[in-house]
Amino acid sequence: MLGDLPVSTDPRVLVDYRTSDDAGVYRLDDGRALVQTLDFFTPVVDDPFAYGRIAAANALSDIYAMGARPLTALAIAGFPKDADRAILATIFRGGLHALQEAGVALLGGHTVQDQEIKFGYAVTGEVDAQRVWTNAGARAGDRLILTKPLGTGVIATAIKFERADERIASAAIASMVQLNRAAAVALAALPADTVHGCTDITGFGLVGHATEMARASSCVLEIDVTAVPLLDWALDLVERNTPGGGRTNQQHFGPAVESAAALDARRVALMYDPQTSGGLLVAVAEPAAAAALAALRGAGVPARPIGQVLAARAGAPNLAVILR
User: Where residue 1 falls among pLDDT bands split at 50, 70, 90?
Assistant: First the structure.
């Protein structure tokens, strides 16, 4: 949809939509840059307070994925005319809870009437202009680290059709409300050349966001499917509860993916599972990979190494991801 729009020529624009990054970056001066994002979606869980928290965590994640610190937020909401106001107020309270946890100031917002509930935030942050993390920075030889397990799309679908009990739902919600702040802070404290590329895993699934990073960086991402962490019960639920977004992701991104023949089809399906408030996929310099993992785990982040970055393969210009 943006293909026909004129490209910005403002030299202060450091990152825009062209690299499919999580947020835009605008230079303020030699040292500082503004980071901006917007994200909202329909409910993924029944609990309105948890939904508000998840929506906020998901929007904030775009800022953390750029290596930035979120500062302010504006709420965006669509509600049916006859919606229960108590439920709506609870959604807003849940969102505010997450913003306060992140130290972000809520400045206001805007609501419209809609046939179904939608909720989220526009978030503004700040980053060192010399240390912006983007999709386009991954280099051959980098190691890939994922900071949260996959499976929220499958579990949300199972919840919708009453195929997931309270234990399963609670585990998925606990993952989705978890901010990516601890991961971003731990990585930002490492030497400047540690993180080469970063993105958060959301609606396009791990493969989709890995594809965007590979294309922006002119490389190939190789992922060890058995090393990718999964939420408890996600593997058991995937065959009956693959969401429509997972199938769409596989149709769209699949042509750029090479998969080993012996892989478990259920695990492969979860590589395409659309995530809500997923973790960070980070490309780190190989010599610093152990230190990055140690820093993340020391901050309480269940990070796992899941693969590596390879040079683009000669004769295969469309190849972006290898699943092995």
Answer: low
Q: Across-strand partners of 75?
A: 109, 121
Determine the Cα–Cα distance for residues 205 and 271; give it in Å rounded to an integer.
6
- End-to-end CA, the chain: 33
Per-residue model confidence (pLDDT) at position 18:
86
User: Which runs of E-coded beta strand occur in 116-162?
Assistant: 118-128, 143-146
Question: Do 143 and 222 touch, CB atoms closer than 8 A?
Answer: no
Distances (CA, A) of 189 to 194, 233, 267: 10, 34, 33
H helices then E strands: how many in the chain?
Answer: 10, 13
Residue 280 Cα distances to 22, 146, 151, 165, angstroms: 11, 6, 14, 27
How large is the average pLDDT for residues 286-304?
98
Nearest CA-CA partner of 191 in 61, 292, 279, 68: 292
- Would you state the torsion angle of the CA atoms of residues 169, 170, 176, 182, taken in this order, to the nearest 10 degrees? -160
pLDDT band of 2, cuts 50, 70, 90: low
Q: In terms of Cα–Cα distance, which of 111, 119, 21, 3 is closest to 68?
A: 21
- Give 92's contacts (C-beta < 8 A, 6+ positions apart): 52, 75, 77
The residue among 146, 132, 64 whose CA lies nearest residue 98 is 64
pLDDT tens digits, 192-248: 999 999 999 999 999 999 999 999 999 999 999 999 999 999 999 999 999 999 999
Flag whether pLDDT at 8 surpasses 80: no
Burial (0-12, 13-18, 19+ Cβ within 10 Å), 178: buried
How does 123-142 read in b/e, with b if 16+ C-beta sit within 10 Å? Answer: bbbbbebeebbbbbbbeeeb
pTM of the model: 0.95
Q: Are 15 and 23 in contact (CB under 8 A)?
A: yes
CA-angle at 152, arms to 149 and 157, nearest 5°? 155
Q: What angle do CA 19, 23, 28 make, to 5 degrees?
A: 105
